[in-house]
C-alpha cells in the first residue's frame, strides 16, 4: 500500500451523510508514498487534518459532493471512474481516478486510486521499467489492520505473486479480471525478469497490453521489498485516448 506505483488515498466520511462540514469533514486518512513526487507534499503533512478545502480552494465544493455520492452509492465492489484535470504544486496534468467506499470499524472510508496520464496511459509507451519513489515515514495514525482491509477493497485489481507467477494473495476485484490477468501475466513477468538481468535494482514496471478479446489493460508490477522474491501486480482497464500498435 505505502509503496504502491500508483497513488492510493483514503478519506474518512462524516457519520451523518449527506450532511457535512466543509471546514473539517472528509479529512485525508492515508496517502501512498508516491504522492510526494507528484503532489509536492508528504503523506504525513496531508493527513494532519487537511481536507479538499485546503488543497482545492477554487472547486472544493465539487470534491465534497462527489465524495458524498461515492460513500452513499458506490460501496465496494461498485467503482466510480473519473477523468479530471488536476493542478497541484508539483504537477498540472490529467488523472484517471477510481473511487469506492468501505467500512472500517464504525467509520465509512472513501478509498481511491489514481495516476497521471503518462506515456503508458496515452499509449505512446507499452512498457517501462524503473524505480519506485523514495520510502517515506509511516503515517502513525493508520493502524496495521487498516492496510489489510483497504488492500482487499482497492478499486484496482491487485495481487501478490511469487517468483513463478503463482498468485499468493488476491484482492476482491481479481476475480472479475481473471481472464485478462491470465492472458497478460506471463508476458509481463518475462519482461520484468529480462530487465532484472540487466539491472537488479529495478523495482517498478509499467505496461499496457491488449488481451486476446481486444481489451486494453493498464498493468503495474512492483517489488516494494528488494530483498523479497514476491511481486505486487495491479491491473485496471486502460483509458482509450490514443493507442499505437507495437
Walk me through what this model shows.
- This protein is of the alpha+beta class.
- Helix content is about 20%, strand content about 30%.
- The chain has six helices and eleven strands.
- It has helices spanning about 35-40, 45, 50-55, 60-75, 145-150, 180-195, and strands at about 5-10, 30, 80-90, 90-105, 105-115, 125-130, 155-160, 165-170, 205-210, 215-220, 230-235.
- The strands form two sheets. It has a six-stranded antiparallel β-sheet with strand order 6-9-10-11-7-8, covered by helices on one side.
- The longest helix has 19 residues, at about 180-195.
- The relative contact order is 0.16.
SSE blueprint and pairings:
Elements: E1 7-12, E2 28-31, H1 35-39, H2 43-46, H3 52-55, H4 60-73, E3 80-88, E4 91-104, E5 107-116, E6 127-130, H5 144-152, E7 157-161, E8 167-170, H6 178-196, E9 204-210, E10 216-222, E11 231-237
Antiparallel strand pairs: 1-2, 1-5, 3-4, 4-5, 6-9, 7-8, 7-11, 9-10, 10-11
Beta-strand share of residues: 25-35%
Count of individual beta strands: 11
- End-to-end separation: 31 Å
What Rg do the Cα atoms give?
A: 18 Å
SSE run: EEHHHHEEEEHEEHEEE
Helix coverage percent: 10-25%
**Largest sheet, strands/sense/barrel:** 6 strands, antiparallel
Structural class: alpha+beta
* Tally of individual helices: 6
Amino acid at each position: 500500500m505505502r509503496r504502491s506505483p500508483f497513488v492510493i488515498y483514503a478519506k474518512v466520511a462524516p457519520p451523518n451523510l449527506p450532511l457535512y462540514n466543509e471546514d473539517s469533514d472528509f479529512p485525508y486518512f492515508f496517502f501512498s508514498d508516491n504522492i510526494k513526487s507528484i503532489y509536492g507534499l508528504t503523506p504525513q503533512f496531508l493527513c494532519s487534518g487537511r481536507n479538499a478545502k485546503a488543497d482545492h480552494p477554487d472547486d472544493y465544493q465539487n470534491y465534497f459532493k462527489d465524495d458524498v455520492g461515492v460513500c452513499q452509492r458506490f460501496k465496494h465492489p461498485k467503482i466510480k471512474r473519473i477523468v479530471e484535470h488536476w493542478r497541484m504544486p508539483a504537477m498540472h496534468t490529467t488523472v484517471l481516478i477510481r473511487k469506492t467506499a468501505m467500512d472500517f470499524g464504525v467509520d465509512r472510508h472513501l478509498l481511491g486510486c489514481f495516476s497521471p496520464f503518462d506515456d503508458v496511459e496515452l499509449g505512446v509507451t507499452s512498457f517501462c521499467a524503473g524505480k519506485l519513489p523514495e520510502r517515506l515515514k509511516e503515517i502513525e495514525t493508520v493502524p496495521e489492520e487498516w492496510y489489510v482491509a483497504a488492500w482487499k477493497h482497492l478499486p484496482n485489481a491487485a495481487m501478490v505473486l511469487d517468483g513463478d507467477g503463482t498468485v499468493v494473495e488476491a484482492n476482491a476485484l481479481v476475480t472479475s479480471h481473471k481472464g485478462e490477468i491470465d492472458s497478460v501475466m506471463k508476458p509481463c513477468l518475462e519482461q520484468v525478469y529480462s530487465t532484472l538481468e540487466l539491472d537488479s535494482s529495478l523495482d517498478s514496471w509499467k505496461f499496457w497490453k491488449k488481451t486476446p478479446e481486444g481489451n486494453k489493460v493498464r498493468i503495474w508490477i512492483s517489488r516494494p521489498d528488494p530483498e523479497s522474491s514476491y511481486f505486487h501486480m495491479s491491473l485496471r482497464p486502460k483509458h482509450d485516448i490514443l493507442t499505437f500498435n507495437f
